Amino acid sequence: MAVRIGVGQVLLMLLAACTVMPTKDPLLSICMDAKHHKTKPGPEGMLYGQCAPWKDNACCTANTSSEAHKDQSNLYKFNWNHCGLMPSKCKRHFIQDTCLYECSPNLGPWIDQVDSSWRRERILHVPLCKEDCEEWWKDCKDYVTCKENWHKGWNWATGTNRCPWGSICRPFSHVFPQPKDLCEKIWSNSYKYTTERRGSGRCIQMWFDPAQGNPNVVVAKYYAWKKRTSPAWMEDETPETDKALCVLPWPLLTLLPLILLVLLERAVGPMDAGFCDCSPKGHGSNCSRCPTRRAGIDNLGLSVHTGHTLQ
């Protein structure tokens, strides 16, 4: 008895052979190539103080997290107290900023290449949540500083940052009139001020409760999707949360044309079996010559409609 295999069965066979392989987005869960970052994120048994929320998946080490809390740490020899003692309510925001920069594995969509002696990558235009930026400015507005851009232009003659000659210390509220000025200018546009709020899934949070999970994971996925799908960063579509790639094994791919040919031969019959016109117009001519072909066509779920011929 001839073997009949329908199109549906063929598809099932191909799906059974299909291997589902998850794809890894290169913008997600990564560490930047910088001075103190790990090569890849991972759990840390203990992170110090304000850096603790990142301990489950961190780009920083325990030592880096500890140094981030010092007035003049060994990380960058940077002195927060360059214009007098920085109030603790202000300093905590700079510590949190350092923890985010050093520890977060969710800044991939904003990593930018740089040509620097101490790092190859930096972050640029990270969308900071409205509350984080405004609270930072509010708690620091009465502190004084001599510079708008803290990335460069310091006097490093003593081995630590000091105000440039001729500069004067002024209140933050004068140097940075608005929260937007502080967040965007202080670190050369590392951050971008947004009107998005915490929990929106559209802005990075410096502050979050680790017991509720890291909200920046979702934010990074969203912006990674936008970066992948449109150079213009479209606003109106919803990202796919999970993607997988269905791949046929290579040996099967090479044999696929032959397999399909054999299956079609068995299902439809020899291609030289003749032409059948079983419609009323054809008066059933030649139908008796290709019963196998006819049966195969029926088995494939195809029908010959009145007035049309199948070739």
From TrEMBL:
Belongs to the folate receptor family. It holds the Pfam family Folate_rec. Keywords: Disulfide bond, Signal. GO terms for molecular function: signaling receptor activity. Transmembrane segments: none annotated. This is Folate receptor-like domain-containing protein. It comes from Falco tinnunculus. PROSITE patterns: PROKAR_LIPOPROTEIN. InterPro entries: Folate_rcpt, Folate_rcpt-like. Residues 30-205 form the Folate receptor-like domain. GO terms for cellular component: external side of plasma membrane. Residues 1-22 form the signal peptide.
